[in-house]
Amino acid sequence: MADINVVPLVDVMLVLLVIFIITAPLLTNAVKIDLPKVSSRPNLTQPDHIEFAIQEDGSLYWNGAPVTLDELGPRFAAEAARQPQPELHIRADRMTYYDHVAKVMAAAAKAGLGRIGFVSNPEDR
Asked: Model pTM?
């Protein structure tokens, strides 16, 4: 006899389906909690930031005021000691040598500033 009897297979599949239908809702461990409703807006306080600019010729500007590379260490250390620690936003000219940017980043990291970012202008499309 070359026939395959599929009735036992269908019976087993239906039993498995019923088991999964019954146990699936039990697997969710969500606890129903009625959370309080509030009408306040989130507090969006931003920490202070330092606008640091590097021009193509290597001249450095701290919030618009010219500074030298030797002055950066003590100024970065003083800013790193503040709480909350300010962010350093580096705005470098497109044609600035990477060496100038790397020296500024190294001085900031050595002083303990942890939040360093680059500011760029989006391309015109």
From this structure: 0.59
